[in-house]
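hey m, so remember when u said the tokens were messed up on ur end? i reran from scratch. heres the input so u can diff it against urs
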Amino acid sequence: MTNPKITLYAFETPEGCFNMSPYCTKAEILLKMAGLPYQLEIPEDYKSFSKGKLPVMKDGDAVIEDSEFIRLHIAEKHGKTLDRTLTGTAIASGHAMMRMLDERTILGLVTGRWVDDSGWRVIEPMFFGELPQEERKAVGPAMREQVSEGVKAQGFGRHTREQQNRLLEADINSVAALLGEKNWLFSDEPTYLDASLFGFLANFYAAPPATVLTELVAKRPNLVAYVNRGLEKWYPAARSILSAA
């Protein structure tokens, strides 16, 4: 069997589990949904890519950076639009929802992981535990400060914690209302919108450390059922991995 010509570069994660980056998870599910064989690699230095972030996909000679451009590439080059059951209104509504999650809700996850001391105690050894002690002491706190300043620069970090939580609750309420009782977002079968939505909700609800978003998702049975449905479909081994964590 020849090696697949597609390589997906993503952050390190336990084998069989979704990635702790919602965007890397999205890209991997898009490839799974499209039925395109790929190999998953962890780059030595992801900042060597031109945009300095992950995921990145290499398809032959083409290098595609950013999960949304990966989606468009899969549609345009391979003819896998992954939207067959979506109406125009559903596509527009899904687009608006994803931009909400991209631009604001994700900041609650970043805050819970990097800014809050309780989250940092979990994240720091996961991201920097393999570094030599002196390098770990220098790199980890510097990265944390950079992330914290970025959250402030976007405005979210300037709110009180109570104000942040009110904004996040409004976002999660909107997602729950739009999903309703359907198995998948706006559809009876998964589409590209679900690759993105699952990436967010799995990280909000099922990935360590617990944040305010974990509690907000847990209060909404349809969102919990959605995460479990996605795990069963795309990451069936993740249940045992998560329960052992």
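this time it looks ok to me. The longest helix spans residues 88-115. if urs says something different then somethings off w ur setup not the seq
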